[in-house]
Amino acid sequence: MDDEIKGEGNSINYKFRMHDPRVGRFLSLDPLSKSFPWNSPYVFGENRVIDGIELEGLEYVFASDGKLIGKFGKSPKIKVASQDDLDQYRNGLLEPHELALCTQDINTASDEVKSNIYTTIYSKEVRRKSDKYKLEGGFVGVGAANDKIPPAQAYKSAEAQTVIFKESNSAAISVWSSNNNNYWDVASTLNHEHGHAYFELDKKERTTASQYETLVYWHEIDSGIFDKASESSQLNTRHKFLQYLSNLAHDLGSSKQQARDANLFVKYKTLYEAKFDIELNVYSGAATFSVYDPTISKRKKELEEENTNVEN
Fold it and tell me: What's the CA gap between 186 and 122, in Å, rounded?
């Protein structure tokens, strides 16, 4: 609440606008007003001030076949609507916000449904018209359900994985850790896997493991998708990037390969510092070399404390 101007309890701060409970009205336009032309853009809960609930989130509602039905509010959560609820919505028996309230979290859906939705997110947010490689099978797999990834090449400890098939210029992408219900976190993960396919098949990069992973992680970070992901997802990606950046400069010497590593290290260190407006700490020892961003561990700890306080 903001009591300084109108007095105690007379100005309630919702996430996107201020509400005056004395008149049951907001002081600014509903950011979703174009989706509800039959409503005044200033009303609270569709003018039901007694039992109405004001939704603050933009939830991504999908059908089980992966089709994106719509976005409601500002929350990036992925929800799945049942066929019965979709039929009612399409027949005008459910309003958009009512449909959103009837949905289930994607984490409770089957692997097949998750695969359908991930494939839609990949096609909508990640895949570009200029990409030449093909998506093996035409879908993004989920865990062991992706039979396009041979068991011998499956690393289930990884969050996601891409296996390259050079003879067919295609890539099999699978998400192993499928417990994330954040639309932009999933999109960022898929964009990382897209980087593996793009640089190896389309760009035909010939690099060492450290160069390759540094390149792919920067591809993920230097995108609008990453900027929309949750803060915890961003911090984890930044941490992994710095691990590979450290490996890149671990054993710098005079050979041509090592000289190239040194140049790439300086390049990506400079790019990282410019994007996040920070100076990285570099530690060099007899057998170790590491690049450290002190803000990551600090912010992770703060987020953990914030989550703990919410749970309590």
Answer: 9
Which pair of structure tokens corresponds to residue 116? Answer: 């359908």
Q: What is the mean pLDDT of the segment spanning 6-26?
A: 63
Sorted by where each begins, the domain ranges of the chain are 12-105, 110-206, 223-312
Q: 172 CB contacts (<8 Å, ≥6 apart)?
A: 135, 136, 137, 141, 146, 148, 149, 162, 163, 165
Instruction: Out of 12-26, 132-146, 211-225, pick the least confident.
Output: 12-26
The predicted-structure confidence for 35-85, as pLDDT tens digits, reads as follows 555 566 655 555 544 444 444 445 788 999 999 888 876 788 999 998 898
Query: pLDDT at position 145, please?
Result: 47
In angstroms, the first-to-last Cα distance of the chain is 22
Helix 209-221 / helix 231-248 crossing angle, nearest 10 deg: 150
Average pLDDT over the chain, rounded to an integer: 79
- Inter-residue long-range contacts of 6-10, CB under 8 Å, 24+ positions, other chains counted: none
* CA atoms within 13 A of residue 298's CA, in its CB half-sphere: 4
Please compute the mean of the pLDDT values over residues 263-292 and round it to a whole number: 86
Q: What is the pLDDT of residue 247?
A: 83
Q: Which residues face 45 on adjacent strands?
A: none
For residues 51 and 182, give the distance between their C-alpha atoms in angstroms, rounded to a whole number.
29
pLDDT(118) > 50: yes
